[in-house]
Structure formats: C-alpha cells, structure tokens
Input
Amino acid sequence: MAKIVSTNKKAYHDYTIDTVYEAGMELRGSEVKSLRAGKANLRDGYAKIKDNEIWLHSVHISPYSHATYDAPDSVRIRKLLLHRREINKLIGKVREKGYSLIPLKIYFNEKGKAKLELGLAKGKRSYDKRATVKDKDMKRDVERVMLRYK
Output
C-alpha cells in the first residue's frame, strides 16, 4: 500500500486534470528522509519542459532535521524521471494552448520509492470553479438528506 506524503488539493480546484502520470524524482541526500517525515508542500509547484526533460519547480521539501551537513536547497529544481514516450507525449500536449503540468501528489510506492503524480491540466475560469463548488455542495446536501431517511 502506498504512503501518501503530500497532496495538492488546490490543483483540483484551480485546474481540470485530463491525464495523470506517475514520475520518479531525482532526490539528493536527506530529501528522502524528509519526505518520509511528511515535510513537503506542493501548493505552488509546477513542471516545465527544458531540453526534452521535465523539471519540477517550486516544490518545497523541508531540510531533514537530523541531517549532519550538506542539506540541499528546499525549493531547488528537481528532475522528473519518465519514459521517453511519455515525455514526448507531454511535450506535444503542453505545446497546445492552455495545458500545464501540475504536481498532484507525492507518495512512496510498494517498493519504497518516492513517486510524484503529475497531472496534465487545463486552467479553470472563475465560473468553472463556482460550478464545481455548487455541484459539490449539492451532492453533500443530497447525501445528508439520504442519511436522514435511512
């Protein structure tokens, strides 16, 4: 069973997620121990394509408290590890108007490897956000009424 370290709840509010990809991350030193302690923040994170590689920007992984020396920068740019076929597909999609790559979740898989769930997303407009909130509220009200009559 996968252990979830951090999720980007705001991504589902601000974007419509079309496709989700699983990517490895190139981590240094004590960053893995810091992730195991749950010290990550995906809120402002995004991924960029540069030289046919995908790089993760603005994801904060706090320095590990018991690290002895050489703690890496907490918001450094990290390389994402994907198959070449997936990278080529993402390059084609991101070149289309309005698509961006947003980190959705950091977790450890069954083998203990740190993975990042990367979403191919399109930005929502304000009226889309209002419609989403309205739908969520209606579903909650219906469930509340259904529980009363059980």
Summary: The mean pLDDT is 89.
